[in-house]
Amino acid sequence: MGETRVDLLHLLEDLRDAYPGSIEETILTEIMANALDSGATQIRFECDPTQSTFTTVDNGSGMQRRELARYHNIASSTKVRGQGIGFAGVGIKLGLLVCREVLTETRRGKSHVATSWHMASRHRAPWKWVSPPGLVAQRGTAVRLNVQNALSPLVDPGFMEGTLRRHFQPLLDPSFDDFLAAHYPKGVAIYINGQPLDKQRWLAPLHALLEIRLLRKRKSSALGYLIREEVPLPEEKRGLAISTYGKVIRRGWDWLGMTPMSAERVGGLIEVPELAACLTLNKGDFIRTGARGATYLAFRKGIQEVVSRQLAAWGDARESTDEAPPREVRPLQRDLAHVLEDLAVDFPLLASLVEQRAGGQKKLPLGSGAKAVNSRSFVAASVAEQTDTYSDERGATSASQTDNGDSRGESDSTEADAPRDHGLMLPAKGGMRRPGHYGLDIQFEDQPEALELGRLVESTVWVNRAHPAYRRALASRSVGYHIALAVAMALAPLAVEATNERAFVTAFLFRWGEAVESSNKRKQSKKR
């Protein structure tokens, strides 16, 4: 009889490397996130450089004895997808890499217990029950880290404040208090060495509200703002940050796929609670495939539209300077728009990649008398697809932004115009001309070592020109079919489950073939 021997040190190091920031930053943000997941309304941080200790105490739900015992299992977690922003207590577990001791005290009801934990060797991280030191008064969890390095940032109050303000900006901005009240009804108070961390508004000469609203809901689905300064912003404040449940997940312009002319002077923040269900395993990014990936891409498209409109109003929108696509791609991109329209009926998750045009899409149901000027209906359609997390809601969406932050009038009028008996509402003719392209795009890259024909990144399919199959298709003058196949294989993980990917590729190529035939017939009729 053998047994599995786990290299704990290597496992924890790999876990540490999965996060972009320093290990101290990861420990602090994950401990904070897990305290929020426990329902804490007060979270206290204490650092003592003389004793090299970092202590956090919250008044959350706490743990019972058996839960605390299971908590020492590296792979253990009680997290439910979509209901939290912490990951398996990883902050405390990573503390084993930089601490002499990790002491945990927890109290729930009559259960009041504590443990001491440390890394003894590469393969052993023993723990034992100890007497509770009395850090928790009535209910909650306390963690005390005895760090190995006396100069660790974890014992620096300035580091703690800067990290918390950067990673949990919505919780420390009063602009989001009402919006987050549904998830944090009693609010969240944060203390560092006994001093409350005060809330601060982001003030700037130009300030505009960003809002995405599901019309059948009174409350906004996403809320935030965009600001523009007269001088360049610090590096960490540039770009639009996207958060969920108060935790910032991404920041900058890259994730949004757009950049204003004065990128160094424009920043902002938008909170989207429903994207908590779309987080990756380590809660550091968003899933790009399946129903959750479609929800993220749909919200991303809605955010793109409201941001581009506001940048255009400020005169800061960057004009399109994209080079013309290669000759073999031009007809394919024209046909692809029609293919996605057709496929979105049978594969709703592709709706987030369908380009919205003035006058609506031919193959999707149009609302009679609809007066919407935007296309966030696909946000509602994709969110409704997640039946395991959200109820089956079908509705249109609207977004608005104003310099003074008051959007009630516009939202109410749009809601009144919304149809009630159909699922999607698309823009009618005569709407505002949109400054950008938000549908599926095709680009090329050289990845000699990659086996895939192409890959989907956000809303762009990157075709691998270095693939031998591409070179063969180019030589045999069949590159158009190769690109279509590459697009189909790249979209399959987003559109369907893994077991149905072959059927999707077949359906895609069938529709693409029909689109090519229709295009040839139109050309012949024009010649006549």
Q: Taking strands numbered 1, 2, ... along the chain, how are they ordered across the largest sheet?
A: 5-4-3-6-2-1-7-8
> Helical residue percent?
25-40%
Instruction: Assign the CATH superfamily of the domain at 8-192.
Output: Histidine kinase-like ATPase, C-terminal domain
* End-to-end separation: 81 Å
| Strand tally | 17
Helix/strand structural class? alpha+beta
Q: Supply the CATH class of the domain at 8-192.
A: Alpha Beta
Q: Using the alpha-carbon principal axes, give the shape.
A: globular
List SSEs in N-to-C order: HHEEHHEEEEHHEEEEEEEHHHEHEEEHHH
Biggest sheet descriptor: 8 strands, mixed
Average of the residue pLDDT scores? 79
Give the strand content.
Answer: 15-25%
What's the total helix number? 13
Could you outline the blueprint of secondary structure elements for this entry?
Layout: H1 8-17, H2 23-37, E1 42-48, E2 53-58, H3 65-71, H4 90-94, E3 99-108, E4 111-117, E5 127-130, E6 140-147, H5 157-167, H6 177-180, E7 189-192, E8 195-196, E9 206-214, E10 220-228, E11 239-244, E12 247-250, E13 266-271, H7 290-314, H8 330-346, H9 377-384, E14 397-400, H10 408-416, E15 441-445, E16 454-457, E17 460-464, H11 468-475, H12 479-495, H13 501-527
Parallel strand pairs: 1-7, 11-13, 15-17
Antiparallel strand pairs: 1-2, 2-6, 3-4, 3-6, 4-5, 7-8, 9-10, 9-14, 10-13, 11-12, 16-17
Helix pairs in contact: 2-5, 7-9, 8-13, 11-12, 12-13
